[in-house]
Structures are given as structure tokens and as C-alpha cells.
Design goal:
The protein is an all-alpha fold. The chain is built from 5 helices and 2 strands, in the order H-H-H-H-E-E-H.
Length: 193
């Protein structure tokens, strides 16, 4: 029995082999990426849910405390990821058009900015009220006094950063899907465990 080989039959195998040889992120960056990603998605979902709860509800107070602790934990992981990336670097982007390279770098840069601005603005907003911030039960220092205007300013920044972060996540995921399904350059394999 003879086997007829189609030129298209080897394409998925060739793509898989190219993905296996493509430069990958360091294992520590891969782990941090996914832990931070799931943490941020959970925090965004929780934040959007909490906003709709009535004021004074004990559940809301508990969720806010949990949200602050988890948010600061993710923030510390983001800082760790920035340090690890500075030390180990990242693999080069695959060949792509200049506008795509600029869009990828801009989106990633803005993601980092949003991941830093969001927890800092939340923490500062909490510093300008009477409650402060508890980090897994430990009361953190307050950097302000009870000031409604400053509290509103920082919480406004926190809320705006949440919507910017949602938009950036959508762009980031859309870009990854485009590279995987349309460009077929197996870019996603660089960040998969």
C-alpha cells in the first residue's frame, strides 16, 4: 500500500515543530504571567460585582478587604515579574510588520503601567479614609487623612484604570489569538507551560 503525501498534511506537524523550537519565555515568567493574569481577571470580576452591592452590607465589607489583600498580592507579583524580566530578558518577537510590533510593545507597556497604577491608586484611595487597608489581616500604614476629595480622586483613577485594563486585556488576548489562528506563527507557545 502506498501513501500519498499532501503538502498540506505536514503543515500542522511543521507548525508544531517550529513552535517547539521557537524561543520561549523563562519558566518563572510563564508561571508569573498566568498567576497574575488569573489574579487580575478575578480582581476585575470581584470589583465589578462589589460596586453593585448596597453600602453597609457586611458581605461587601468582607469582599472589599479580600479585594485589597488579593490586589496587593498581585501587585507584589507584578513587581517580581518586572524584576525577573529585567534579569532573564524575553525572547525576541517573531517577524512581523512594524505597526504590529509597535502595537504589541505599546499594549504590553500599557499593561504594565495599568498593573502598577491600579493597585497604587486603590491603596492611596484607602489611605484617605478612616478604614485604611488590611493586607491579609495586617493593617498597613495610611499615607493620608480622612479626605473625601482625595479619596474620590484616587478611587476615580482606580476605576478608570480598571476599564483601561479590561480593554488592554482584550487587545492582548485578541493579538495572541490572531497570531495563533491567522498568522500561525505559534507565538502563544512561548507563554504556555
Amino acid at each position: 500500500m502506498t501513501t500519498v503525501h499532501s503538502p498540506h498534511a505536514t503543515k500542522p506537524r511543521a507548525d508544531a515543530e517550529a513552535g517547539a523550537r521557537a524561543p520561549r519565555y523563562a519558566g518563572s515568567l510563564i508561571v508569573l504571567h498566568w498567576v497574575i493574569a488569573f489574579g487580575i481577571i478575578g480582581l476585575l470580576a470581584l470589583g465589578l460585582y462589589m460596586v453593585g452591592l448596597p453600602k453597609g452590607l457586611p458581605l461587601k465589607a468582607s469582599l472589599i478587604t479580600f479585594h485589597k489583600s488579593l490586589g496587593l498580592t498581585v501587585f507584589l507579583l507584578v513587581l517580581l515579574r518586572i524584576m525577573v524580566r529585567a534579569v532573564v530578558g524575553r525572547p525576541p518577537l517573531p517577524p512581523m510588520r512594524p505597526w504590529q510590533r509597535a502595537a504589541a510593545r505599546t499594549t504590553q507597556g500599557l499593561l504594565y503601567v495599568a498593573m502598577v497604577v491600579m493597585p497604587l491608586s486603590g491603596y492611596l484611595g484607602s489611605s484617605f479614609n478612616t478604614y485604611g487597608t488590611r493586607f491579609w489581616g495586617i493593617l498597613l500604614p495610611k499615607w493620608g487623612w480622612d479626605d473625601k476629595a482625595l479619596r474620590s480622586l484616587f478611587f476615580g483613577i482606580h476605576e478608570a484604570a480598571a476599564y483601561v485594563l479590561i480593554a488592554l486585556i482584550v487587545l492582548h488576548v485578541a493579538g495572541a489569538i490572531k497570531h495563533q489562528l491567522i498568522d500561525r506563527d505559534n507565538l502563544l507557545a512561548r507563554m504556555l507551560p
